[in-house]
Amino acid sequence: MESKLAEKKPSSVIPMITMTLLFFMWGFITCMNDILIPHLKQQFQLNFQQSMLVQFAFFGAYFIGSVIYFMISYYKGDPVNKVGYKKGIIAGVLLSAVGCCLFYPAASFSVYGIFLTALFVLGLGFTILQITANAYVTLLGDEEGASSRLNLTQAFNSFGTTIAPVLGGHLIFTLFTQNGQVTADSTRIPYLIFAGILVLLAIVISQVKLPSFSTDAEEERGLGALKFPQLKLGVVGIFCYVGAEVGIGSLLIAFMEKPDTMGLPEVVSKNYLALFWGGAMIGRFLGAISLSNLAQAKKILYMIVAAAVVYLVIFSIVDLTFAQTSFFLVFIVLNILAFFVGRSAPARTLVLFAVVNVILLLVSIFSKGEMAVYPILGIGLFNSIMFSNIYTLSIAGLGKYVSQGSSLLVMAILGGAILPLVQGSLADSAGIQDSFFIPVACYIYILIFGLYCMKKVKVDPDLKVNVNH
Description:
The protein has helices at about 15-45, 50, 55-75, 80-85, 85-100, 105-110, 110-140, 145-175, 185-205, 230-255, 265-290, 295-315, 320-325, 325-340, 345-365, 370-385, 385-395, 400-410, 415-430, 430-435, 435-455, and strands spanning about 175-180, 180, 210-215, 465-469. The strands form two sheets. Strands 1-2 form a two-stranded antiparallel ribbon. The chain has a two-stranded antiparallel ribbon with strand order 3-4. The protein has a single domain (about 15-469), classed as Up-down Bundle (Growth Hormone, Chain: A), CATH 1.20.1250. Residues about 1-10 and about 460-469 have low confidence and may be disordered. By secondary structure, it is mainly α. The radius of gyration is 21 Å and the shape is globular. It contains 21 helices and four strands.
């Protein structure tokens, strides 16, 4: 029988701010992959499947790293319980910095394999962050508010992914070019800058007083986390979600370049890519509000204000006119309505968002011109709460098995390596548009997972954690 855990309540404000900064930088560097893909595709004359090896190397590292973590927890006990979340987070940040530094020899020697190695090491660092930082945020308060807190930090993660296509695209395609030509410095210098920022962030985290969490239950080895059916189903859910999101984001620029869609050059399409990721940011801010314990009237007011403010922020970032982005307002209104229909229930909201994404993808697949592109750009809004909701529904009630369960969920980020590769292969053989049937299948599974959780998964408000200073 699971033991209940006692709780002391320190202030979580400083830890949440620290985690927010971390999630922002983490999202920024992750989204740089979407800029690297067309750049490396052109530099090394790759087809779509070969260019997707960027995502295969990066997200494949999540799988390898999580397998290593899980095997250690199986034979030796959970590493996080031994070293603590803070040391785990710092280790992940520093390893990510090493991965960024490896872009220097990759760009200097212009070898695709070294680029992939750098991405793999970077992915290993982010694997440690996925295992430690996501679980840490869910523990900074009561379990019922876990989805709201994780959505909030994920919102700033999305802020990073929103400005990455614009700022990162400027760094690679404009600032560090010579006579308008992309050079080795186009990737070498930006990633050295990222490495320096990550090292600085690790120093900041080491100086911030973060509460540590532990359980008074006796630590057990083995596969205890797998006795929870919601976790097993959630592992597949994360696999599908990450695979769908990464696949869509990776092919968006190429899709918008097609003459029968919008025929946009890369310097313009990167702004629409920012709009796609910006939608995820808006949705996550709205999710943090919707899934909170605020009164309904306050939720309505805060959600409208938040949507308006974040939209204006995105509009100020992208190099697009209001006429070019006004269609996005329709999707924002639809997103807010879906949150209210979901009634602040993580599983119900997940089901609704999965249904909307399936519909948007099908409209895009069977349309031409702008009507093929606009629905896909709206998907970012409805992707917003999926990771955090799948994650928190999967680990609800796991108690002392939370970290082990988290490592399994992070292992499932392998979907970001496998599914884009499959989608890239389908894009080569059948065309980009038909390749979007892959994420359609993914969202259908997420819909099924959400329906299961609506009936079977209940959050235990009494499940708490010990907090030690």
